[in-house]
Description:
This protein is of the alpha/beta class. It contains 33 helices and 22 strands. The chain has three domains: 34-80 and 98-130, no CATH class; 83-96 and 134-484, Rossmann fold (3-Layer(aba) Sandwich); 488-811, 3-Layer(aba) Sandwich (Rossmann fold), CATH 3.40.50. Strand 8 and strand 9 (246-256) form a beta hairpin. It comes from Methylocella tundrae.
Amino acid sequence: xxxxxxxxxAPDAAAPAAETQAIGEDVAAIRDLILAKLKYSVGKSVTAAxxxxxxxxxxxxxxxxxxxxxxxxxxxxxxxxxxxxxxLSLEFLIGRLLIDALTNMEMxxxxxxxxxxxxxxxxxxxxxxxxxALGNGGLGRLAACFMESMATLSIAAYGxxxxxxxxLFRQRIKNGRQLEYPEDWLSFGNPWEFQRPEIVCPIGxxxxxxxxxxxxGELRQVWHPGExxxxxxxxxxxxxxxxxxxxxxxxWSARAVDPLxxxxxxxxxxxxxxxxxxxxxxxxxxxxxxxxxPAGQELRLRQEFFFASASLQDLVRRHIxxxxxxxxxxxxxxxxxxxxxxxxxxxxxxxxxxxxxDIPWDEAWAITQATFSYTxxxxxxxxxxxxxxxxxxxxxxxxxxxxxLINALHLAKVSGEPDATGHRLAALSLIDESHGRxxxxxxxxxxxxxxVNGVSQLHSDLMKTTVxxxxxxxxxxxxxxxxxxxxxxxxxxxxxxxxxxxxxEVVGDNLLDNAMVLEKVAALADDSSFQERYAAIRRAxxxxxxxxxxxxxxxxxxxxxxxxxxxxxxxxxxRQVLNILExxxxxxxxxxxxxxxxxxxxxxxxxxAAASYTTAKLIIQLANxxxxxxxxxxxxxxxxxxxxxxxxxVSLAERIIPAADLSEQISTAGMEASGTGNMKFALNGxxxxxxxxxxxxxxxxxxxxxxxxxxxxxxDEVEAKRSQGINGQDAIARSPKLSEAxxxxxxxxxxxxxxxxxxxxxDALTYHDFFLVTADFDAYYxxxxxxxxxxxxKPAWWRSAILNTAHMGWFSSDRTIAEYAxxxxxxxxxxxxxx
Length: 835
């Protein structure tokens, strides 16, 4: 079947003269607008302008176009009284916005032409823009995809988060070690945002509670905070596809009520005069400050309450101004909690309704439950936040009082059940008393929401039998599934424009309106000419990535090698160490058996370890140490390379993913909630090697088991294995390759300057292998050999790659958001398309 058969919807080769003239007029208008912005907003002449000046001028010119639709969208939502969605997330990993805005506003070609007339390259400006440091990994990127899809589906929505001054740290690698530095993404300003000085919310901490008697004889609790911080709003418009609807990302910045104690300053205490300001502004300084100290724990709780309280004050104010009665909040607002970070909003809304608006408790609780829904992102009990009761009582005394009452009423309701034993009541309680009294924020989010969703079918099923087993038993049906998705506008069109053009030849230019049309591409999976064009695009992307790798870390890559990519947050359960062990095993084999017909392979790692996560940081050092030895060994003749790219972010992912041949999704089964990187890789044609974990299960169902490399223990087998013990000695004894690799690492082959550097890591794998790296090593090694065999058969490889792309339409975040809208939020959607 040839390509032309499927190209019926492709545009004519020559545009009509009138259309050509209109495009020329658009280019001229954009050029003039950019010049005006450069002169009057940036204050530079053409001859004096730097690339950053041109970037700002271009961004402001695009922003003007976005604002026109933005204001129209806001007015339309007000006029029609549509229900709004409020998405509360501690992270929004939005990445660079210039190309994103140009793409969704359908201005990219005209803007590129306009800049070319001015002697400026759009791709250069793309590189000038800093990534917004507002997130860490999948959680924040998911929030960004959801914001774009909500706008694309014309859902009236606000995203609420924190405007971090520095966000997550900038990662540098020195002598193989991760070093953390402040991310300076705001050092040159942010042309996309609008400061709203008129929108300031007071946020209270500490203080005391008075009890007053209302005229009706009921008691009323009055909280008198001992400290107040102001939350100042900054708005960023988020355009949907084709610019039909624009939503708002509102981020909060913390500031002191009195920025300077003038009396102290004038008395000579210049530093003390600024202490209140420093304490207040620390709330929005960095994402995920270290929490290994009591001060760090307090700052994290202050952050979470700060943005949750500001967001609720803001949306309740908006609701009352539009509809008058706070009692109708659930009819006009749906609040989605993205993980447990904003779960304190449950208690805060009760405080607002009961204390500030005199709503009776039972009615307020009904409103709260009807308004909130909660997305769970983890099955790790330690990752479901808990806060020490003494900290909560000191920092948020009224909210702790509310939580106690929620808990008392909740336990009173279930205590009459036949199986209401002390153990069961303890498991259902909001207060965990097993290791000091702590508030279970996951329990609070569960009880205070009308729906709780997981982010893949396996994850949602496991929630019912693990972390929320007891709660699900008293609220059957509350847990539902919403498998994650990705926005194809960013991860296909922007990240891989050449592949997008090829696909549009087959499916038509409505690909980005309806991702399901990708299914048409499956018919060409065996077409040799299509395979050649598809493979040529991949090779060009690999050459681009190879240049970037050489520029950043000085390692030269062979673009014809298999690019085996493992990019994600560094964590033991994501098992980067399993990948490294396989690299060491292959290294030893190549040296011992150089005569074998080895295929060239490059292992590419990237990701950040939490600053206080010692083991994860050691894994980064191991990857760098292994790479240093392997890459410099002449005996390998370039057959194996191992590289670690520092400072992983959205923009780096956009370069790596289109160039990947193999996608590493090898978490311990039952521990990855979903993953979205797996979807981005498969969409761009990388084959997945992975466990049956998270959304890998659904990816296999869609692309077909022959087109994915699944290995290792299942979630049930992991649980059974752990029940028998997690000592890795037996697995190591059965696997000579694993034993040799571990001994090489432990003995200092890759750390001659410090031979015992990794002895502790190897001992943990040997005697306390909780993440079952050793148990899965042989299966992983064998799966990699299956990868090699497929790679040698290039028609078979490209057939599988094309089928991966063809069957990924279901994983669009448009589909995910449409499901949220219908089944959780009860809001209408308008499918994207040319209006």
